[in-house]
Amino acid sequence: MDRIRIVGGNELTGIIPISGAKNAALPLMIASLLTDDTLTLENVPHLADVEQLIRILGNHGVDYSVSGRRERQGEGYSRTISFTARNIVDTTAPYELVSKMRASFWVIGPLLARMGVAKVSLPGGCAIGTRPVDLFIDGLQALGAKIEVENGYILASAKNRLTGNRYTFPKISVGATHVLMMAATLARGETVLENAAREPEVVNLAECLNAMGARITGAGTSTITIEGVDSLSGARHRVIPDRIETGTYAMAVAMTGGDVLLEGARADLLQGALDVISQTGAEIIETNSGIRVLRNGSGISPVDVTTEPFPGFPTDLQAQFMGLMTMSKGKSKITETIFENRFMHVQELARLGAHITLSGQTAIVEGVSKLKGAPVMATDLRASVSLVIAGLAAEGETTVNRVYHLDRGFERLEEKLSRCGAVIERISG
Ligand code: UD1
C-alpha cells in the first residue's frame, strides 16, 4: 500500500492549481443517467472516486469518452469527459460497487425518474458516522415512489412516473437534495423542496440540469422549485473549482507560512472558511486568477469554529482546521455538528505532539509551539489530508499511511505541494 513521506518545516511558496470539485463532479456525472443524449462535463478531476463512478455508471450502460486531457499541465489533471446513457441496460446498482463509494447510491434518483424502477444497494463510503438514507426514502416516497428494503437493497418503483409534491427535509442533506432535485426534473407537475441544502455543488447541478432542459429555480436558497418536464437533452457544463481543496491548501499555507496563489479558486464558494482563516492571522487576497494566501512571521491565532451546512464552516474542512489550530498561540474549540464520529484524526494528530481533548462533539485544542514528525494513519479522506498539512509544518519526518483515502479526493497532492517547496513524496508498495 502506498505511503506519503513528508519532511516538514518548509514554507510553501508558489502556485497551486485548484482542480474541479469532486463533490460537484459526482452528482453531475450521475445526472447523465437522466437523458439518452450526451452530457459533456469540463474540468472533471482525475480522482479515484471519479474512476469508480465511471465504472458504476458503465454498469448501467453509460458510455464515456475523455477529451481535453491536457487542460492544465499534463496527464492526470482535470479533463473533459462526455457521458452518454443512450440505453439503460441495468437498473440495479450492486453492493460490490455501491459499498465502495456512498455517492453512487444517488443513481437511485435518475434511474427511478427515467426508468420507473431502481434497485440500489445501501451505501458504504467513509467511516464517519452512520450516514443513513432515511431522507432519500422519505423524499422519494413523497414524489409517489413505492419503496421496499430487502436484503440490503432499496427497491424503488414508480410505474406511472413520479409526481411533483411539496417536501420539507427534516434535516439538511446535500445528497438527498441532489437526488430529489434530479428525480423531480422528470416528475409530473411541480415539486417544491423546502429546507434544501444550499451548497455550491447543488447550484452547479441545478445549472447543469437547466442547461439540459430542466426547469429549476431557487437552487442556492432553502426552497427549490422544479417544474417537471417530459425529457431532458444533452448539454455541456463546467465543474466548479473544489472549495475543499482550496480551503485545505489555504490552511496548509496558514500553518507553514509562505505565499501561495490558489489558481482558479473562487472565494465566493468558501467565504465563511476564508474569513476564519484570516482570523488566524493569514492574509487572504482575491485576485483575477484566484486566491492568494500569505502568512509571514506572525503566529497563528486561535479561533473557535462550529461546522454547519453551507454557508457555515464546512465539515469537510474541520480536520484540516484542527491541524492548523494544533500550532496556534492559545486554546480553540472545534465543534462538529454534521457527522458524529468525525474526530478520528485527533489521536493521529496527538502522535505528532498535538494537545487535543475531546468532549462529545467538541474538541479543545491547546496550541503547541511545534509538532514533531511521526508515522500516522487515517481512516477517511479529510482526516488524511489534515495529517499531511500537519506533517508539512512538523519538524522532521512524517509518513502518512493508507494514501488511497487521499487519492479519492485530492488530485496530484504531492506534486502540487512539492512544486511549492514542500518535501513530500509517494512511496509505492
Ligand atoms: C456530502 C459530501 C460530503 C460532506 C457532506 C456534508 C459529497 C459526495 N459528499 O455528503 O463530503 O461532508 O455532504 O457537507 O458531496 N443524513 C440523514 N439521513 C439521510 C441523509 C443524510 O440523517 O438520509 C444525515 C447524515 O448522516 C449527516 C447529515 O445528514 O449527519 C448531512 O449529510 P449529507 O449532507 O447527506 O452528506 P452527503 O450528501 O452524504
Commentary on this structure:
This protein is α/β, with parallel strands linked by helices and 429 residues long. The protein has two domains: 3-19 and 241-427, Alpha-beta prism (UDP-n-acetylglucosamine1-carboxyvinyl-transferase, Chain), CATH 3.65.10.10; 22-226 and 234-238, UDP-n-acetylglucosamine1-carboxyvinyl-transferase, Chain. It has helices at 22-31, 48-60, 95-98, 108-115, 134-142, 174-185, 200-211, 243-256, 271-279, 318-325, 345-351, 381-393, 404-409, 413-418; strands at residues 3-8, 12-17, 38-44, 63-67, 79-84, 92-93, 117-121, 146-150, 153-157, 166-168, 190-194, 215-217, 224-227, 235-238, 258-263, 283-287, 290-295, 305-306, 331-335, 355-359, 362-366, 375-377, 396-401, 423-427. The strands form six sheets. It has a four-stranded mixed β-sheet. A four-stranded mixed β-sheet has the order 2-15-17-16, with helices on one face. Strand 16 and strand 17 form a beta hairpin. The structure holds uridine-diphosphate-N-acetylglucosamine.
Could you give the count of β-strands?
A: 24
User: Which CATH class of the largest domain is shown?
Assistant: Alpha Beta
Structural class: alpha/beta
Output mean pLDDT.
94
Helical coverage, percent range:
25-40%
CATH architecture assignment name of the largest domain = Alpha-beta prism
Number of domains: 2
Whole-angstrom Rg = 21 Å
Query: Which strand order do you get reading across the main beta sheet?
Result: 22-23-1-24
Tell the overall outline: elongated
CATH superfamily of the largest domain: Enolpyruvate transferase domain
Helix count, DSSP H or I runs of 4 or more residues = 14
CATH topology name of the largest domain, in short, is UDP-n-acetylglucosamine1-carboxyvinyl-transferase, Chain
- Report the β-strand fraction as a percent range: 25-35%
